[in-house]
Amino acid sequence: MATSKKTHARRKPRQRRSQQRVANIIDAAGQLLEEVGYAELTTNAIAAKAATSIGSLYQFFPNKEAVVAELVKGFRADIQSLFDHSLSVQLARRSLRQFVDVVVDGIEDVRRRSPGFSSVFSFRKFGGTLNDQRVQLEADIIFPLSSLLAQAYPEIPEDRRAQCMTMVTETTKVLLSKIANELPENQIWMREELKCMLGLYLESRLLI
């Protein structure tokens, strides 16, 4: 019987120098995900990019899966913080367009300051156990949004809300990834168009 690879860290860093080393390792893994993809990602490459020894990496992580799991854990925490502090049932009731603006701008902010987020969120350049990480990240986006909309619009059937969240999430994944590769002068208006499109879509499906 095949056994799954461990995806948890060996130990938590306690000293500030060790904490910085771990942060550098995680950041390096995120950068490499964008550059070469998950299949080509190796612990040796991560250690080299983080300017640390492979032995130092293995002090904290047993394999690349554990490094990526810690990376995605940070993404998930950022998304949860965004939803906890910036979204509310009241906002969803007051204006679906403003609600969408906060979601798209918030996810874009996480993407911009978090190397590797695009590769996980946009479902590209990945393989192996990274698929499990992507599923967890996507669930952390879809379920809270669905819950907020369920409270704001209880009269809407659950299956319709689920369909809406799937369409919004998939559209956002594809277009934010494309926008990120556009010229800076195009990114602003394209992101505004995305928000307008999603806002109009949700209004057409949820406002009855």
Characterization of the model:
There is one protein chain. This protein is mainly α. The chain has two domains: 16-64, Arc Repressor Mutant, subunit A (Orthogonal Bundle); 66-206, Tetracycline Repressor, domain 2 (Orthogonal Bundle), CATH 1.10.357. Helices cover 75% and strands 0% of the residues. The chain contains ten helices and no strands. The protein has helices at residues 16-36, 43-49, 54-60, 64-86, 89-94, 96-113, 117-121, 130-152, 158-180, 184-206. α1 (16-36) packs across α4, α4 (64-86) runs antiparallel to α6 and α8 (130-152) crosses α9 (158-180). The longest helix has 23 residues, at 64-86.
Helix-strand blueprint:
Blueprint: H1 16-36, H2 43-49, H3 54-60, H4 64-86, H5 89-94, H6 96-113, H7 117-121, H8 130-152, H9 158-180, H10 184-206
Q: What keywords describe this structure?
A:
mainly alpha; 208 residues; elongated; Arc Repressor Mutant, subunit A; Tetracycline Repressor, domain 2
